[in-house]
Amino acid sequence: MDIQELRDYLGLMPDQDDGTARLCLAAAQDSARAAGVIERTDNAQYRLFICALASYWFENRGLMTIGAPSTETQHMINSFVLQLR
Fold first, then answer.
1. Which pTM value belongs to this model?
2. Taking the CA of residue 31 as centre, how many other CA atoms within 13 Å lie in the half-sphere pointing to its CB?
3. At 57, is the pLDDT very low, low, confident or very high (cuts 50, 70, 90)?
4. Which of 30, 32, 44, 63: CA 20 to 30 A from 23?
């Protein structure tokens, strides 16, 4: 998965810096690996999971949600991980 796919998912403008998006993408990929999910760039569900997770961190980078992700977000993450394992 490349940064352009995440840029498109986030709706970043062409002239908008993507440094933070790159960081969120790398963190999402590392998190998926740590959860036992094998990288499958040819799998749309995997790419959607990485985009959704990176987007969650990108949109909440100001730590407006202190603590653990919401119950709904955690259920989504768990569901993706289980399906992709």
1. 0.75
2. 19
3. confident
4. 44
